[in-house]
From TrEMBL:
Gene3D superfamilies: 1.10.238.260, 3.30.160.270, Aldolase class I. Residues 474-594 are annotated as: Regulatory domain. This is 2-isopropylmalate synthase. Belongs to the alpha-IPM synthase/homocitrate synthase family. LeuA type 1 subfamily. Pathway: Amino-acid biosynthesis; L-leucine biosynthesis; L-leucine from 3-methyl-2-oxobutanoate: step 1/4. Residues 87-349 form the Pyruvate carboxyltransferase domain. The lineage of its organism: Bacteria, Pseudomonadati, Pseudomonadota, Betaproteobacteria, Neisseriales. It catalyses: 3-methyl-2-oxobutanoate + acetyl-CoA + H2O = (2S)-2-isopropylmalate + CoA + H(+). It comes from the Bacteria. One of its GO terms (cellular component) is cytosol. The gene is leuA.
Length: 594
């Protein structure tokens, strides 16, 4: 029985009138106004309170027939197959997230993020697109060797070469999945694939059968599913289920859908697909209309039991559904959804900061859950309410998502072994003694400049040091002169392939002078698209983390730098971006992106 709590409260004159009436009826055990608001928010109330309402109605001479407040239940509201309330969290930060302009990651960076995702409890980690490049294959393979608790997945087109490359890369994984896809919407089949529907079904079935040679865990995606015809989807999904697929993904590839239609769409496809109860149904939503999270949650209501998402909502165009928002929505509103995940929510902020540092994509302050302002209160009324009782304006605590426990217990007297141990706790494993020694030396320098060291400092420090070890352009030193009324001057020393160069220039500001000085030697011809500065932690002693995005001949790269001197960080970021341009490494274009 589900009661319409809004109508029930209104029957007694509203929240305030009901609270006052209950107080007069039973002064010692009356619920507070806030408690009654919670009844309405949750859509339920304790049985003992329901009995009190019955007594109150009798005392007031009112008739309280609960049958009048029972909400009608739709027989088809929950498909029979969905008795399981466990939601599989499939993270695609390392694949779809990397499709953000300039967000390409090195193998070492991908492994660090994969370790954090494993620590967070992610069920499936999509480690990359193994067939896209040798670098992608190596990253997927290394993650397959490293991660033990999460299933490791590689995406592949419905092309035999792609699938076999994925299978080979995933071979070392204790738990592995091949994720193959093909477009199913009329517009994609006609204009992109130039294939008939029957040919698309044949290709999909063949792809799944080849994938089954490497693993029993095969996911099939219908690219642009939400703009596909339900009848055709039921046909192709039924065929790949018969071929051995174990997960079926219906992605909103272009971010076109809206929640109520997403829920209905999943219900319809599942209802019409033969053997639909033999697979897990998955949702993968893009955020072009800002509805990725809402659509993902609606898909759950329609029968999905896997959500594909990324840290910070990273992804091509407007991004993907954000893992932190999905997880906390299910956790905070468990009364509405009733679903469980295996995620350790206290690891969310750490994951967010790591991905931001590695990719150079800063998190906006007003970002839900992980933004700097997510638990800040400017309004005096809000501040007063939170001080008196946190739940007046906070539906979750900062600690519950990992905001509090990020202070490092090391200092400038800490030894190399303690430093190495702490890095391991953060999922950072350096491949060589040279890298460890260089990072430890940087740590000592930082500890001399900062009284408090945070985990974020270490992530930024290691990212910066690892880049400096491997890049073509390396920062050496600089001298910046700036004075009001005078043009700032930058004198910079940096190396290119081990050869030192000195450069100097003036500019409209110190940053402009730095970039012009570097370019006077580099002559890259690149266009500066974005320059951003972010404080790694709180306080005036914080490291500055800078990001530079350069574009040239259709290629886009991001460079990052970190230092307590933000102008040094700026030079490092620009040189890092130039190194990526100089590498000339490009991925092959995939058939599409789900």
């Amino acid at each position: 029985m589900q009661l319409d709590i809004d109508r029930l409260i209104a029957h007694f004159g509203g929240v305030n009138a009901l609270a006052e009436a209950l107080k007069q009826h039973d002064p010692n055990n009356a619920p507070s106004t806030a408690a009654i608001y919670k009844w309405r928010t949750r859509g339920s109330l304790p049985l003992a309170q329901l009995n009190k309402l019955t007594e109150l109605a009798q005392n007031q001479g009112k008739t309280l027939d609960l049958n009048h407040f029972i909400q009608p239940q739709n027989e088809s509201e929950h498909p029979i197959m969905n008795t399981n309330n466990r939601v599989i969290i499939f993270d695609t930060t390392l694949r779809d997230g990397e499709q953000s302009p300039g967000a390409a990651m090195s193998k070492e960076e991908k492994v660090r993020i994969a370790r954090q995702l494993e620590k967070m409890g992610v069920d499936v980690i999509e480690a990359g697109f193994a067939a896209a490049s040798e670098g992608d294959w190596a990253a997927v393979n290394e993650i397959a060797k490293t991660v033990k608790n999460s299933t490791i997945c590689s995406l592949s087109r419905a092309v035999e070469r792609d699938i076999r490359r994925a299978g080979e890369a995933l071979a070392p994984a204790e738990k592995r999945r091949i994720h193959t896809f093909i477009a199913t919407s009329p517009i994609h089949m006609e204009h992109k694939l130039k294939m008939l529907p029957e040919q698309v079904i044949q290709a999909a079935v063949k792809a799944v059968k080849i994938a089954k040679e490497y693993t029993d865990d095969v996911e099939f995606s219908c690219e642009d599913a939400l703009r596909s015809e339900v009848g055709f989807l039921a046909q192709i999904c039924g065929a790949v289920i018969e071929a051995g697929a174990t997960t079926i993904n219906l992605p909103d590839t272009v971010g076109y859908s809206v929640p109520h239609l997403t829920e209905k769409f999943f219900r319809d496809v599942i209802a019409q697909t033969p053997n639909s109860d033999k697979v897990i149904w998955s949702t993968h939503c893009h955020n072009d209309l800002g509805l990725a999270v809402a659509n993902s949650l609606a898909a759950l209501q329609g029968g999905a039991r896997q959500i594909e998402c990324t840290v910070n909502g990273l992804g091509e165009r407007a991004g993907n559904a954000a893992i932190e928002e999905i997880v906390m929505a299910l956790k905070v509103r468990h009364d509405v959804f009733g679903y469980e995940t295996g995620i350790d929510a206290t690891q969310i902020v750490t994951a967010s900061k790591l991905v931001s540092t590695v990719t150079g994509y800063p998190v906006q302050p007003n970002k839900a859950v992980v933004g700097a302002n997510a638990f800040s209160h400017e309004s005096g009324i809000h501040q007063d309410g939170v001080l008196k009782h946190r739940e007046t304006y906070e539906i979750m605590s900062a600690e519950s998502v990992g905001w509090a426990a990020n202070r490092l217990t090391l200092g400038k007297l800490s030894g190399r072994n303690a430093f190495k141990t702490k890095l391991a706790e953060l999922g950072i494993e350096l491949d060589s003694e040279e890298a460890l020694n260089a990072a430890f030396a940087r740590f000592k320098e930082l500890a001399d400049k900062k009284r408090e060291i945070f985990d974020e400092d270490l992530h930024a420090l290691v990212s910066d040091e690892m880049s400096n070890l491997s890049e073509t352009y390396k920062f050496v030193s600089q001298h910046i002169v700036t004075e009001t009324g005078e043009s700032p001057r930058a004198e910079i020393v940096f190396s290119i392939d081990g050869v030192e160069h000195r450069a100097e220039s003036t500019g409209s500001g110190p940053v402009d002078a730095i970039f012009k000085a570097i370019e006077s030697v580099a002559q890259s011809g690149a266009i500066l698209e974005i320059y951003s500065v972010n404080a790694v932690t709180k306080g005036t002693e914080s490291q500055g983390e800078t990001s530079v995005r350069l574009a040239k001949d259709g290629r886009v790269v991001n460079g990052q730098g970190a230092d307590t001197d933000v102008l040094v960080a700026t030079s490092k970021a620009y040189l890092s971006a130039l190194s990526k341009l100089a590498s000339g490494v490009d991925k092959i274009k995939a058939q599409g992106g789900i």
